[in-house]
Design brief:
The protein has about 180 residues and is of the alpha/beta class. About 35% of the residues lie in helices and about 15% in strands. The chain contains six helices and five strands; from the N terminus they run βαβαβαβααβα. A five-stranded parallel sheet has the order 2-3-1-4-5, sandwiched between helices. It is globular, with a radius of gyration of 16 Å.
Length: about 180
């Protein structure tokens, strides 16, 4: 558990449709509510009408540039300065920005094989919708493959096999942080 002075900051990063939000919500229900903050990276996408987007079908919503990382980092630092014992940050791009990564005490990286990931993603409704049918293969999957190369061999990042039963994943992470 974190000290009275500094919260324990958890990062639930990695593959799309891997269970990161589900685990964050589970932990939110298991930890004392008055000592917990949850931050979802999805809340930091640049707005569709932002100049960050070309809106020509070539935008990649699954890369670091899709997020307002300055605002996310500012909000995380603000939560750190408050009286929380736990801060959970979840999203697909947590460890690519060293400014954010340096704020995270416990790092988890969720992984899935291609077929499982794609089958889960097809079941999701995205807003805005993916611009064309090949988006997953052309835009998302290559970025995730780069993440695997960068993060799966690091000793400071715990890999989470998202093919496991979600309850087992939740219980393991909860036990790890208590």
């Amino acid at each position: 558990m974190a000290s009275e002075l500094a919260p324990l900051v958890l990062g639930l990063g990695g593959v799309t449709c891997g269970g990161k939000t589900t685990v964050a919500n589970y932990l939110k229900g298991q930890l004392p509510k008055d000592s917990l903050a949850v931050i979802h990276q999805d809340d930091y996408y640049w707005p569709e009408d932002s100049s960050h987007w070309k809106n020509d079908g070539t935008d990649n919503w699954d890369e670091l540039a899709a997020f307002d990382m300055d605002k996310l980092i500012k909000d995380v630092k603000e939560k750190i300065s408050q009286k929380f014992h736990y801060i959970i940050i979840e999203g697909i791009m947590l460890y690519e920005d060293t400014r954010l990564e340096e704020l995270i005490d416990r790092k988890y990286f969720f992984i899935l094989p291609y077929e499982e990931c794609k089958s889960r993603r097809v079941l999701r409704a995205y807003e805005p919708p993916e611009p064309y049918p090949e988006y997953f293969d052309v835009m998302y999957w290559p970025v995730y493959q780069q993440q695997l190369e960068l993060f799966t061999h690091r000793a400071d990042i715990k890999l989470v096999d998202s093919t496991n039963i979600i309850e087992a994943i939740q219980d393991a992470i909860l036990a790890d942080i208590q």
